[in-house]
Amino acid sequence: MEAKTTLARRQPAVQGDFMRKMLTNAGCLLCGILVSRGAVLGSLAPFGASFAAAVPRKYLLSSLLGTAFGYVLLKPSDSFRYLAVVAAIGGLRWLLGDLDKVTKSKVFAPLVAFVPIFATGVSLLFVSTSTLTTFADCVTEAVIAGAAAYFISTALHLAGDNRSFEVFSQQETASVVMSGCILILAFGSIAWQNISLGRIIAMLVILLCSRYGSVTGGAISGISTGAIFSIASRENGYICGGFAFGGLMAGLFSQLGKLGCAIAFVISNGVMCLAFGSQFGTPSGVLVESLAASAVFMVLPKEVGNVISPVFSSDKNTSLGEALRKNIVMRLDFASKAVGNVKNDVSKVSEKMKKLYSPTFEAVCEGTRNEVCETCGLKMYCYEHKGGVTRDDFARLEEYLESNGTIGERDVEKSFVKNCCKKGEIARSMNANYREYQSALEAQQRITDVRSVVAGQFSGIGDILHDLADEFRNTMRCDNESAQRIISALTSLGAIVEECICLVSNGGRMSVELTLSNKSEKLSKGEVMREISRCCGRRFDLPTISREGNRIRIAMCEMPVFDVEIGSDQHTADNGKLCGDCINYFNDGFGKTYALVCDGMGTGGRAAVDGNMATSVMTRLLRAGLSADSCLQIVNSALMVKSEDESLSTVDVTSVDLYTGKTTFKKAGAPVTFVKKNGRVTVREMPSLPAGILNGIKFSTDTVNLTTGDMIVMVSDGVITGDDKWLEKLIRTWNEGSTQDLAKAVVDEAVKRRKAEREDDVTAVAIRITDNGR
Q1: Which GO terms describe its molecular function (predicted)?
Q2: What's the CATH fold of domain 562-771?
């Protein structure tokens, strides 16, 4: 049965891979047809060859077919040469396909495009029916083919990298832009009454880049599209100036909104065309194209900017900012190590001082000798002639004192080998000194406990500094422009923004942290999300809001890939009012969801205090951005100093990375966790000590990669009644119903099975990974 189920699960995955492969090949076929239609210098068409030379090998066949078909459609009478070029490119790539060092070189695609175009051009240069008339045209076409192949191969490589636009280098961004312009040029030949669809699309792209990429986006898009369309025909040289100047002016007026951007472009482009293009009779056509592009631009939704804005986001990694970041990382690293060394030094010195100055029973005997024996007439006899016997006599008194706490005259008489004339005085003096000895030992133990907690705090502080260093190290840059736009937008809504930081990680994901005054106007989470998404040109998730003192902290990140559905249920032992199990789950604002289950020792009020304290401290510190391991040290120390009585709590933390699905389990004395992945249930058991017992405890850690439909079930020890097979079966067969229903079903069944046993608090938390639908 399980084999059939596994086969049934594999079939949709195989079908999905097949469909993706078919769609990708169809896309390559279509792109081959389109780029082949892009002409330069009036009649030359090198871009199809460039595409065929640049496309990945696994999609080569469909690309060659599309390119050949496009050349036949473009110029049926002159397609023989380009079909020969396509065949030559296919042959070269097939022959050299096994030479990885050659094919992975950046010059491979440009050379494969350049050589066939140049060779066939030179061969047909003197044929009367050829479209090539000069050697210069032959060289120009071959160079354009090679350059285009480089741009297209770079853009296709970037498409498979799963990196965001904002982490592209300037060269990579230029390659993406030029590849887009080549694709747009394919529509240039579609025209009516000298009004070109390709130029309308190019103007629309310029307007979008100007609006959402400011001056940088307008200038780059204007120059790129202008250069491509200028070489399309010998009579279109004026287009480069019109597009470039129009893009620059539209970017300068982008702060005035869409309307200001469109008016600036139409006027600037029109002036350039009137000045330099009137001799070709094109001004009226250019005006119609500009107006058509502006009309489409005005009706496009704002969400289009989410894709375009990151492409032209300026790099904030100035030399000063990067040096400052590295300096902070270095200092935090050294500070964390220094604090850790302080802990070690304190521990070593304490151990040596303990050996030197710890109270001993010998000190008790010494005190009695000074108080009683010093004035005795037999002192010389007892300590000079019978010194060894006297010391043994006193040593034997330690057993009586440890057993009874005090000694009497008869105990002295039994312990002493030789007769003593001051047995009563010795007993009284020994009792008094022994009480002082016991008090000194208790005081030393308290000092040791406090010292242990303080040493644990040193360790916790060192971990916190190390976490901060890692966070700064993994942060690629700070987007100050987006931060300023956020401040302006929220201020206009009545918020008093004290600090705003927009950080972009190495993976290209942006996170935003805000600090507001508590006197700010109350804003809903939806309002904050919409405004920040608009200001940054990205789609953000709902924010996490917390309060510390008189300030409000807001943390949010880009919309993740996954979401979670969480349900929980509890049963209190003996149907009491206070439950020793405490649960909480929340999003930290940086793309992770945490679920916590903390079980205080025992049941009732004392257990409830310990469990709630552990959960409260862990939640507060995790929300502040600290790692779970650092938080555990603080929780452990807090429980140890909370009261003189013994306090302990298990700590069970599950964190789900909503971008990758990586799930981390961390346990300190907590019971097992159940994971349902691909229909199979596994048990995650990680032995460890609870918090509050010993200093320096650590989590037991395990990880698993989950995806949509997978589930996690966390339980307290009240659920586990010995045999947990019933629980595995319940989770495995649970295919319908909410996570809340599952958690309740687990608790209800656990309560039934505990009837014959000791009552205990019962808690279950069920988590299902879902698709965020972004």
Answers
A1: protein serine/threonine phosphatase activity
A2: Phosphatase 2c; domain 1 (3.60.40)
